[in-house]
Amino acid sequence: MEIDTGEPLPQEAGEPEELSDDLPVEPEIIEKPVTCEAQDAKHLIHCLTVIGQIEGHYVLSARNKTTKYEHIIPALVAVEQDRSVEGLLIILNTVGGDVEAGLALAELIAGMQTPTVSLVVGGGHSIGVPLSCSAKRSFIVPSASMTVHPVRMNGMMLGVPQSLHYIDRMQDRIISFVTRNSRMTEEKLRELMMNPHELATDVGSVLSGEQAVKLGLIDAMGSLSDALEALYQLIESSPARYPDNPES
Question: What is the mean pLDDT of the chain?
Answer without folding.
Answer: 85
